[in-house]
Structures are given as structure tokens and as C-alpha cells.
Design brief:
The structure is a homodimer. Chain A is an alpha/beta fold. The first copy, chain A, is about 30% helix and about 25% strand. The interface between A and B is large, with 107 and 107 residues.
């Protein structure tokens, strides 16, 4: 069996390695346009920052062997043609036409099975001045070398990152650590569109606390400069800079597939079935060039990630070798380090869930990630998105200095299994004080969702409260924390009655006004609402997530 | 509705708090024999070590309010009778007879619903000298104060911990941190029976590296001393000591339940249904006094844990208030910090799975917990236990300095959902270099299990290899790592042929002998086996987990 693989970064080498393990006699050839093979693209921001010191580490196996052509030949029995571009697939003759990048020589290669692992390419917006020097993307080792050179030779200091998505945020941290002054320019009203607004805003504030300027709802209109870029022009301001990182997204590389007449999905990625087979059963595709299925909505999506590429590569290889295997889809699980914050999410966001027709219930639940008495316990704010009809969990987001990825990974498994919040609330997760509260954050949040669904607690989101304030609605905004907590930080125009004193202060509460209670995380706010209801106050709501999740201005003790 | 709750540590207060939230008009009384209420028993080892500095922190809410009788009355509307012992339940009259611990006065209290949250008590072995001073258990705040006093006043230095279970191990770390010389005496052949032997042995070695003496298969026969304990006598040796911590397990407190004629389960715990109802529908029970159901085997089990107590308390309260809720059972999920190691497990161990009749396939998979090129990536050894017939995951254990609990929590969700290893292998878990490898450790381990089940890789456990060596079997024990790795650490009587040179060294390999390959983690070992098979060697096996999981003597470079 002759297998030809096009693309040598993540999915391609995975397919080849797995085929060799299943079918040692297969004749596998891998074609890669670039010089480097099988490097960890996700590690590039850490190479730029110096956290990873040597380029070779990104191209090595865990025991330090560089994955070059010789390695693949000797260890994986795979022929590697690098600096070789596949330019045409002839499906009738079952051959690939390829061209040496250096000599421009053309050659043909026959296949029984072909694998497209052509990846994705950064989107370059068609803006004036885009060809100026020192405008980088972050796709290849060459890109990261370019940025490192700019930092070193040009002593570049002022950087504009265009696009506040994952790569933009990772690059922000990397460049701040190199001593740069960074401005993020984002066209949308928020950074990190993988998060709902109120959590993205927590990250925004953390970035600003680290000295990063974040400019949302701002569109780049041009780049100015003589030879090198000198400023970024936007619809709102002009920002002087030494260099620019473009991270406005990637698009799947599908030209070969399209030219060969293979079906392309609605998201622009190559359409594949669960076996990772394209519309031609002898051609498979995997990694950043393919369209996936969202496991919750069953709708097509395009979420290119190294983790997905590896899994898809393995599934493709299994099916090529006659072992039945399926890749069902993705949840868009993502994690990202942002200075001292961990940011993670899986499943559907609130907006996405509403758009998909679910009867959405959400909860904001801030809590320490360990037993609260254990030193080093750190805050995470969890947001759960669930469906009232089926009671199934649809999505989880987590932001904060605490251990966010653990809760989101557990949630990803639960969403895959279509678990209800009732089952999640009684999951047997590991507990010991150095690792989690006795009721894990995910379990507590699931219980709050259940309370909401069952009408045990009437909640209002911070965004709804802010709207009321802005509209000038007449209501009592009741803070039930202690005076000491209030002094450290509070929200303007709130009334302070500590929970322990509420029973004896009921006369101060107007019976016929709307009352919105909160505390640090809104557990005491919830208990306050119960006391008020028992005392005959009818219109009481608890503000979701308390002051910790309040994403607007706070009065902080100086 | 009059609700009486007996027991004020974990499950009891949870029941009371939840009832108040659901049904503010309920009349709730909580009876507690001790002085202290609602304290975090799991935090006691950290209070002894000084990691948690103030006793009050263990009795406080996350915002620092001490949960005393006044707190429960004011905030939870719950009447608390502490230093009050329930001595009899009269089910016909629906009343509890109780006695003040100080005055010995008796009183009766009527109930509509009764909740038994009587907890568990440390087992005290009936051994000569057990009444000597300075023999402690670790159940209550008073116990930990006793230990702290012994440390302070007696300047105690030499400690014997009897029982190498969770509490014994946590206390070991606490006391070593206080400067003590600790010896653990364990009756069984291994410490931490929640783990399979080869992983428990990794923890054993780590303890010894920290200066702890571990004496397994050793039974205590007496304590010697005049007033205070001066030595522990065992069947093998006598160990001088300044004090002793007894941690040989706990037994459920069921005397009240038994005397009242309630059904007791086979494990000795109070038998309850999924609503946490005892054999009397008006009496509920929750926490350390009840028997649970193992979610994998559906057999009864007794696994007292604070996390379970909280969940069961909530379920009991919901059902008391007419909200349908069920507690299905537990997986025995556990996590424990042992110096620099994280130890976690869920589901069935290998032995337990075999005994329960599953067709067991296991895998040892050591790997870094983050992208291998990311600084601070640390090793974890995962063991997966799965069923060949259903392909379902049955249990997971993880040991090492890396992030173990995250993988075990995800596995706990997967086991609850009865997921197959095939589904687990394609889970969309969060990936970024600071958090996990591109293929998460759990996913890689699931893929190795699949390879085993599908006959793609023939494996042999380190224990089976050791048996072969001890029997004097004739086989080639082939290390395919690099000479540099070999020099640092190797196993005796192995042959070294680095993987990259194997194709050219096939003449050195006898074709008709059994060959057992391995490397650091046995991925290269697996590739070596493929090369050998392709070269016509028929009897090749890969040693599970490589040298990292080899739990026997190794030759280390001095």
C-alpha cells in the first residue's frame, strides 16, 4: 500500500507514524513545503518569550531526539520530502504532482491512499501598508525567528497586536515578558470571543493591570511607515509602533482539495466524514484544514487546534489500515495562560447556546479552587451554561488565577456524555484540601444551576443589574457582606447590611420595592434573600456571582 | 415540620443548611456530642503541620465567619445543641433521647424527620499498652491539639504511624515537616491500599527518599512504656518512639441506628436507599456512618469522605423537603499529597476489577503532564484498568510530581458515564503547552489500552518481567534508549541497542529467543518491537511503562 501524506507539521506526521505501527510494510511518503517537520506550533509564543530557550526543543521528541527526515526514515520508516510543494492532485490517475521549492523541479508520485494535512494559514487583512517590514504573523518557526530578530536588532519596544484571540493574547504575554509595551487592537467589542463578555472582561482587566492597552471595537484601516512599519492607523486612533503581530485568525488551506473537486464544507474547511474521509474515499484529511462537527449542536465548525489534529490523524491512519475508528467531533475546549490567569472553556457559550435554540440557564460561580483554609487557594470564576428542558450541561467557562483547566476538562467529559446538572452535582471527584473544596467548584456551580432551574433561587445577572442602574430603576441594591469587606471594595450606591444583622434590621428594608442582594460570591446574598422572603418581602433577587464577578467599576480602598 | 439532625461535623450541618434554604419554616435542631461544629476534619493534618495556622480557619466559612451555634442560629435558623449526646431513638414515639455531656441531664426531642449523621470513629486495635499516653488518633480537633502539645512540650522527635492509609500518609508529611523522624508500620504488604502495588511502591520510594522509614507486612503486637508510650513492638522489631499516631481505619458509628432496629449493611454502615433514606422512611442518614454503592460494581462499599458527606447531606435534605434527588453511589475517587508527589485514583483497582469478574486490560503510562518542551513539565505515571468485553474504563490511578488529580477527575466523569476507551481517546480536553501535552496523558493511556485490546501491541508488566528474571527464564531484556540515558540509570542484565541503530543491528538479536523491549516510557520500546517483528522475530513483548514505571532496583549513576 502506497500512502502519500501532504503536510508535515502535526496531523501529517501522526498519520504516518500510526500507519507504520499498524502496517509496517506500507510505503509512506510525506511531502512538506517548509524546511521543518513536526514542530509544536503551539509552543511558538513560548519560544518568542524565551520560556522555551531552543528552537530544537519544539521539534524534538520528549527524550530530545530531533524529528528530522533522518529520524522519520530510521524510526518511522517514512520517506520525507521537505521543501517540496504538492501542486496538484490527479484523482483519476491517483497521483500527486509536486515541485521542489529550491530547484522548481516537478515530479509525480502515485498513491493508493492520500492524506491531506495541509493546515491553515494566517489571514492577512487587505489593508494599506500590509507589505511593510516588521508586520509578522505567528505560524512558522521562521515567523518567530523574525520577531526575535526585531526584538534583538531593532531593540523594538512598542508592539501592536492585531486580534485579541488566543494567539494574540499568548503573544501579548510573551512580548510583555520581553519588555515590550503592547497594545491589543480588536475589531469586536471584546477580546477572546471564545468567552462570554463578562468573563472576557475579567481577562481584559487583568491584561490592563499588567500594563497592556486593550482597544476593543477598533478596526485597523492602514499601516504607515517607510520601510518598516511605524504606526497602525485605526478608525479611532493612530498607534506608533516598532512592530506588529497579526493574529486575526487563520483560514484552512484547501486549494489542493478544491482544485481536485473534493467537497468543501460551509465553514471553508475540507468536508470529511467520521472516518476523516473526504468525498473521495481514497483521500483522507486531518488537522487544521478540515471542518469539524460541534458535539453539542451537531453543526459544522472550524476550530483548528493541535490536539484535535493529532487525534484526527490517528483516526485517519486507523481507517486507512482497516481498523474501524471514528472522530465524532469537538467541543471547542480551549485553555490559555494570560499572565497570572488561567482561562479555559468548553462546549457552547451563552450566546451560541441561545442562537442554537436551547432554553438557556446560566450561573456565575466564583470560589477558591482549593479548601478555603488551605494556603495558596486561588479564585476561579466559573460560568455554567445549561439547558432547562433536558437539564444537560451545554458549556463551561473558567477564568482566574486558580486551577481552571481541571474543572473545564471534567466538564468537557460530562458534556460529551450529555450529563445533566443533576448527575454532575453528585459526581465523585477527588477531594483533599490541597486540591479542591469539599464540594468541588464544578459541583457547587451545578447545584446553583439546579436551584435556578427549580425556581429555588431567583437570580439576576450583573449585566441586567447594570442595565437597571443605567435606566435609573428604583430598587435596593443590598450588600450583605461585613463592614471590613465593604471598606476594601464595594459597588457604588449599594446599601450595606451584614447578613448576621439582617434579621434584626428588617424594618430598614422597604417591603414593596425590588431588592437585589449580593455578597462576595452571592452565597450570603442567597441566604439574605431567603431571610427577606420569609419576612414577607416578595420581590427579591440574588445577583449572580457577587462582587467578585461584577465586571464593572468598583470603589477600591486606596 | 420538625427535623432533628444527630451529628454536627459535615453531613449534619449540610442537611440543616439546605433544609433552611428550601423550607425556611422548618424547625431544625442539630445535636452534637462534641464542642465544635462543622469543622474541616480533612484539614487536621495541615493544622498539625502548621500549613493551616489557626484552628479557627478549619471552622470558618470561606469569608472567615466561625460556624458556631450563634452563626447557625442567626444565619441558618437552626437550633444547635452541642456537648449533647443522642442516646436513644424511639421510632414509635418519633423522639430522640439525649443527654448533656457536662450535666448528664436527659431530655427528649420530638421529630417528624430524623437525620443520622453520626460519622465514624477511628479503630483502636486491642493491643497491650494501648492506653498509654501519647498514642493519638486523628479524628477531632482535640486529637490534633494533643499531637501539637506532644510536639511542643515533650519535644517529641520519633514518631510511629500505625497504618499506611490516607490519613497515615498525610500525617507522615505533616510530622516530617515538624522535624520528626517518622516510621510507618503497615500490616499489609504495601502502603496506600487504594493503589495497586506498583504505584503504591512508587509512593513508598518517594517516602523513603524523604527520610521516612516504611515497614510493610509488619504487625503491631504491643506498646511499651511507663506512663507515656516509649516503643512500638511488632512481629519483626521493636521501634522506640516519643509518640504514636494510630490510623488503621475508621468504623461507622451505627449504635443508635442498630439499637433502633434500622437495617445495617454488609460493610457495617447504615443501609440507605438512593434518597438517603434508612429502612425507616422517616429516618435519613448521610456521611461517614452510611454504606455506599460502588458505581462500577454496584456492590456495597464503605468509603467515608468529606466530599461524599456533603453531597449525601444535600440529597437527604432535598428529599426531606419533597424535592426528588438521588445519590447513586461513589467511585472511591481520592487524592492525596505526599511531599512532592500527587497521588490520585478513581474506580476499580486491578485486583478489585479481576475479583469482580471483569476481563481486565491494564496499562502503565508515564509521561510529562505538560508539553514536554514547556519548563516545569513534571512526570505522572498513569495506570488504566479497563474491561476487554465492554471496552469500558473501570479505574484510573495516577502518581508522581505532575498534575495527577486533573486526569483522575476527568476519568471519574468518564467512568460514571460508562465511556469506552475508544470515546475517551477522542475526548476534546483542553490543550496548551503550559497545561498538557497535545495528546493529554489520559488520551494517550486510553490509546495504549486500545492497542492492547486490539492485539496491536503485546505487552508484559514489570511484575511479570521480574518473575521471569527471578525464575531464571532465558530471554533478551532489550533497552532501546540512548547510551547517555543508560549511563544515568539502567536495569541490570539488560542489552542496550538504541532505537536509531536497531535496524542495522538486527544480526545481534537472536531470532528464536523471547525479546522484551523497553525504553524510558516504552514508546520507543514499542517501535523497537515493530522493527523486530518486521525483521521476522516472532516472540517480542513490550514492557509496560518503561524504566520510569519499573518498581524494582535500578543502577543509578553515582
Amino acid at each position: 500500500m502506497k500512502v502519500v501524506i501532504i503536510g508535515g507539521v502535526a496531523a501529517g506526521p501522526k498519520v504516518g507514524s500510526r500507519i507504520y505501527r499498524l502496517c509496517a510494510e506500507a510505503d509512506v511518503t510525506l511531502i512538506e513545503k517548509g524546511k521543518f517537520l513536526s514542530y509544536a506550533g503551539c509552543g511558538l509564543p513560548y519560544y518568542v518569550s524565551g520560556v522555551v530557550s531552543d528552537q530544537k526543543e519544539l521539534m524534538s521528541t520528549p527524550i530530545g531526539v530531533v524529528r528530522d527526515s533522518v529520524f522519520f526514515q530510521n524510526v518511522k520508516n517514512m520517506k520525507v520530502l521537505n521543501r517540496t510543494e504538492a501542486i496538484k492532485v490527479d484523482r483519476e490517475k491517483k497521483l500527486v504532482v509536486m515541485k521542489k521549492v529550491d530547484s522548481q523541479e516537478q515530479e509525480e508520485i502515485i498513491y493508493d491512499k492520500l492524506v491531506l494535512a495541509t493546515g491553515a494559514t494566517p489571514i492577512i487583512p487587505p489593508v494599506d501598508g500590509i507589505k511593510l517590514k516588521n508586520i509578522f504573523t505567528l505560524q512558522s518557526l521562521e515567523d518567530s525567528e523574525g520577531i526575535k530578530t526585531a526584538l534583538l536588532e531593532d531593540k523594538a519596544n512598542d508592539v501592536v497586536i492585531i486580534g485579541g484571540g488566543l494567539i494574540g493574547i499568548e503573544m501579548t504575554e510573551a512580548l510583555v515578558e520581553k519588555g515590550c509595551r503592547v497594545t491589543i487592537v480588536e475589531r469586536l467589542p471584546q477580546i477572546l470571543p471564545i468567552l462570554d463578555w463578562e468573563l472576557a472582561y475579567q481577562v481584559n482587566q487583568h491584561l490592563e493591570a499588567k500594563g497592556v492597552k486593550v482597544r476593543t471595537s477598533t478596526t485597523v484601516t492602514a499601516f504607515r511607515g517607510k520601510d518598516k512599519v511605524e504606526s497602525v492607523v485605526t478608525d479611532k486612533m493612530e498607534i506608533p509602533c516598532d512592530f506588529v503581530v497579526l493574529s486575526v485568525g487563520v483560514k484552512p488551506n484547501v486549494i489542493l482539495a478544491k482544485d481536485a473537486g473534493l467537497e468543501i464544507g460551509v465553514t471553508g474547511g475540507v468536508k470529511v466524514n467520521q472516518k476523516m474521509q473526504t468525498s473521495d474515499p481514497d483521500i483522507f484529511a486531518a488537522g487544521d484544514c478540515v471542518e469539524s462537527i460541534n458535539l453539542v449542536t451537531h453543526e459544522p465548525c472550524f476550530i483548528p487546534l493541535g490536539s484535535t489534529a493529532n487525534k484526527q490523524g490517528r483516526v485517519a491512519a486507523n481507517n486507512i489500515c482497516g481498523i474501524k475508528d471514528i472522530f465524532s467531533g469537538v467541543l471547542g475546549s480551549t485553555v490559555c495562560k494570560v499572565f497570572d490567569f488561567n482561562v479555559a472553556r468548553t462546549g457552547l457559550g451563552e450566546h451560541q447556546a441561545c442562537k442554537s435554540g436551547f432554553d438557556v440557564v446560566t450561573v456565575l460561580s466564583p470560589a477558591p479552587d482549593k479548601a478555603h483554609f488551605y494556603p495558596g487557594a486561588k479564585l476561579i470564576i466559573l460560568k455554567l451554561i445549561a439547558d432547562k428542558n433536558t437539564r444537560q450541561l451545554l458549556g463551561v467557562q473558567a477564568v482566574g488565577p486558580g486551577d481552571a483547566d481541571k474543572r473545564v476538562d471534567a466538564a468537557a467529559v460530562a458534556i460529551t456524555a450529555k450529563m445533566t446538572v443533576d448527575v454532575i452535582a453528585n459526581l465523585d471527584l477527588c477531594y483533599a484540601p490541597p486540591y479542591s473544596p469539599a464540594m468541588d467548584n464544578l459541583i457547587t456551580a451545578a447545584n446553583i444551576v439546579r436551584n435556578r432551574m427549580d425556581g429555588i433561587c431567583t437570580a439576576i445577572t450583573p449585566m441586567q443589574v447594570k442595565e437597571k442602574i443605567d435606566r435609573g430603576d428604583d430598587f435596593v441594591f443590598l450588600d450583605v457582606r461585613s463592614p471590613g469587606e465593604y471598606e476594601i471594595v464595594h459597588i457604588e450606591n449599594t446599601v450595606l447590611i451584614p447578613l448576621g444583622k439582617l434579621r434584626n434590621s428588617l424594618s430598614e428594608i422597604p417591603q414593596n420595592k425590588e431588592i437585589i442582594t449580593f455578597c462576595k460570591i452571592s452565597l450570603r446574598g442567597y441566604e439574605a434573600a431567603l431571610i427577606l422572603k420569609a419576612a414577607g418581602v416578595t420581590n427579591v433577587k440574588v445577583m449572580d456571582g457577587g462582587i467578585l464577578a461584577w465586571p464593572y467599576a468598583k470603589q477600591v480602598k486606596k
